[in-house]
Amino acid sequence: MTYQVLARTWRPQRFSELFGQDAVVQTLCNALTSGTFGQAYLFSGLRGVGKTTAARLLAKAVNCADGPTAEPCGECDSCREVAEGSSIDVIEMDAATHTGVDEVRELQELLRFHPTRDRFRVIIVDEVHMLSKSAFNALLKTIEEPPPYILWIFATTDRLKVPATIQSRCQQLDFRPVGSELIRTRLEEIATKDEFTLTPSAAASIAAAAEGSVRDALSLLDQLRAFASDNVDDEAVASVLGVPPMEVTVQLVEALAAGRVADGLALVRDQLANGQDASVLYREIGRALRAALFLAVDPALAPTMSEAHRDLLLGVAESRGADPLSRMLGLWLEQEALVRGSANRELALEVASLRLARWPSVQRVEEWLAGSGPIDSGPGPSSSPSSVGPTKSSQGTPPAPGGASAAEAQENGSSSGVTEEDPSLAEEASSDPGVILATRVLGGEVVAVRSNGEGS
Ligand SMILES: [Zn+2]
């Protein structure tokens, strides 16, 4: 028996099976139930989110022997032929390969005739934004005054490239990227029904790699099944998707969160030297950070993962706490475009990792400046003398080991860098008349931050 790809085997055959697109489904079903559906639709959204599937379902729904109906029977000749792609009255055209005006003219010839058997002649045009200008112009006339037996369904991954004149004559439906949790659940359902092994964390990794596209997720799963003989686990995912082993990602996150710059960079270099893709590694750092953050906030919210990974990340979550992790994740997010878009992604990854690793030190100085005193989580910047801070003048005056008092810092002309724990510090700082340590812009106003912790 030949293997049929999962995307075909599990293609939704009714609207209720089209998951992750509730708004679209509801709009279409309402229109079908009330008989108020339009004659031209424009479906837009990422690749693999269900646009063509929805177009075929709509074709089925309007032409079903019981229809038009939101629940096509799936058994009449029309329903079966649409599902098989052999219906004579449902025409599919890929505008990516048929971009010219001649193809559109040929279509228009067809439109002069009534449907052979069904109620509607449905024309599904995929990637419609690829049509040439003259093809669009030819199309426009047909959409303006379509014969009553014609239903146009256009699909596009780039709506902005579709001329406004076409857009305004269509009912537009936006398909959203499908959430990774939904995709993960779907993959696990398929594995159960198809009786092959798919570990929860492998399913989560595939869902994350698919970036909102159900079709991509299913095709990755096809590849993995072929590679791992129906035993899809983390190891298979690491090999096929080029994802770094979770242990390595967690080690890296541990090093970055603890401010161990050298360890973090060494791990990054090691992975890059092994041929690891820089943006994939960065994405995985983000996933691990997010998981650690959720574990710190409320373990019940944490994404699905194996026990072993959970234990590893729990260590990071407990030693760092939610606030530092959430700020690190914010910083990770700010740098994502940098890593993805850079011509030199390896360098961008190193820079981004360096910043992530320096974050705990910056945060300590900030907290100290804000008067909340040094924090005591982990070894922090002591393993790498802190000279990074919100003030420029911190450079050149590394913190005195064992902790310098605010008064000493003032004498030295140092305005920051005091990060070691010192119980006397908070007291001294609060009795200090308050020397200006830094200025910051808060809500559009320049505020002086004083060593006694007050802003002015
Ligand atoms: Zn039917």
Task: Based on the model shown, name its key terms.
10% strand, 19 helices, Zinc Finger, Delta Prime, domain 3, two-stranded parallel ribbon, binds zinc ion, 3 domains, Rossmann fold, 456 residues, Helicase, Ruva Protein, domain 3, single chain, alpha/beta, five-stranded parallel sheet
Describe the structure.
With 456 residues, this protein is an alpha/beta fold. The chain folds into 3 domains: 6-174, Rossmann fold; 180-241, Helicase, Ruva Protein, domain 3; 247-362, Up-down Bundle (Zinc Finger, Delta Prime, domain 3). The chain is built from 19 helices and 9 strands. It has helices at residues 6-9, 22-34, 51-63, 77-84, 101-111, 133-144, 164-167, 180-194, 200-210, 214-228, 234-241, 246-257, 261-273, 278-297, 307-320, 322-341, 345-369, 406-411, 423-431; strands at 40-44, 90-94, 121-126, 150-156, 171-174, 197-198, 231-232, 436-442, 445-450. The strands form 3 sheets. The chain has a 5-stranded parallel sheet with strand order 2-3-4-1-5, with helices on one face. The chain has a two-stranded parallel sheet with strand order 6-7. A two-stranded antiparallel sheet has the order 8-9. Strand 3, helix 6 and strand 4 form a beta-alpha-beta unit. The chain is elongated. The N and C termini lie far apart (77 Å). 40% of the residues are buried. Mean pLDDT is 80; it is low at 377-434 and 441-446.
- Please compute the radius of gyration using only Cα atoms: 29 Å
CATH topology of the largest domain, by name, is Rossmann fold
Overall form: elongated
Specify the number of helices: 19
CATH superfamily of the largest domain: P-loop containing nucleotide triphosphate hydrolases
The first-level CATH class of the largest domain is given as Alpha Beta
**Strand ordering within the main sheet:** 2-3-4-1-5
